[in-house]
Amino acid sequence: MRTLLKAAFAFGRFNTRFHNLFQMQCDRQLSTNQVTKCPYEREKIRKEFDENGYTILRKVITGKVLEEVQRHVDWLLERYPDVPPEHLHHPILRRDPFWMRLVSDSRLLDIASMFIGPHIALFASHYFCKLPGTGKRVLWHQDGSYWPLEPMHVVSLWLSVDKATVQNGCLRVVRGSHKSALKELQSCTKDNNVLGSHTHSDVNDDDVVNITLDPGDVEIHHPNIIHGSEANTSKTRRCGLTIRYIPTTTRCTNPSHPVYILQGNDSKVNQYRSWPLFMSGYHMPFEGCEKWNSSRYVNRDDEEYLQCLTEKTLEEDVRREVKEVIDGLQSQRMRTQQQ
Q: 261-280 pLDDT, tens per residue?
């Protein structure tokens, strides 16, 4: 089976037939036809999204998977105690098979397909974890101003891992602001904030909506919507997973940034990377992990590296790339302070 999948992927044939074969091996029901099975009121959701720039769906991820997501965050925080919890970034997650299992969950892909169609790739993902009493602010910004995507056809899903309240720094959006153009990023070091930058310093308070969520709820928003969050002043943690889905027709203009195909046909505008290997004893075990390596998406150009990977080299690569992300943010702050 694995040989068959490798041969298909090597020729770029991640078509419906092989996709369905892959998903059956994963014991999941994903297909390019699943958009017709979506349990949500599509027209109502799209109308709300088009008018406001965001919408909320309740109890999307439940049961054992939600328990595994919460355990995953605890596991990451314990494994990387020196990494600020707000910076559990793509370099960590893209080497983590449970994370890939989560972002390819049929319930999340069903939602994404309502906004970008059935042919779906993953651009980026990031746990924003604010610890009790210490979590930092996220200043007002538009996501699209950060991203090397062409065209800017992308949708963000914000999966609530913990209960998100006003007190612990829930997401806040400016209703209707997605109808405005993207603004240039401005560095900002006045506040101890997560991103070190913003696109807007002032917004109309009457249009600000606090997005309060329960674990397993999903908020969906437009790349142009102005949003941010306050610091966590409560005694409870607030963690959410951002997932940035793009149609396979959207190109990532940064060739070094890894992009992953999740569902549907490859439009040949990106080179899609292999899904991560599961390494027993290194990665967090999860339901289905014993079948993971024989059923994951494979790009043959990545396989020599992945098959020779050791726990030591994997850990070194993760920590090096995370350090580069954090150092980049710190350098940006220092440059701003010197101006």
A: 999 999 999 999 999 999 99
Residue 240 CB partners (closer than 8 Å, separation 6+): 127, 128, 158, 159, 160, 161, 162, 164, 171, 213
Q: What is the pTM of this model?
A: 0.83
Q: What share of the chain is helix, strand, coil (3-state, %, to 5)?
A: 35, 20, 40
End-to-end alpha carbon distance in the chain:
58
Q: Rounded to an integer, what distance in angstroms lies between the CA atom of residue 246 and that of residue 98?
A: 20
CA dihedral (251, 252, 255, 257) positive or negative: negative
Q: Model confidence over 22-73: pLDDT tens digits?
A: 443 333 333 333 333 456 788 999 999 999 999 999 999 999 999 999 999 9
- Rounded distance, CA 125 to CA 92, Å? 10
Angle between helices 2-10 and 16-25 (to 10 degrees): 150
178: its two tokens = 């997605």
> Residue 270's closest CA among 134, 156, 121, 125?
121
Domain boundaries, the chain: 41-264
Residue 104 CA to residue 292 CA, distance in Å, equals 13
DSSP state of 270: S
Which CATH superfamily, name and number, covers 41-264? q2cbj1_9rhob like domain (2.60.120.620)
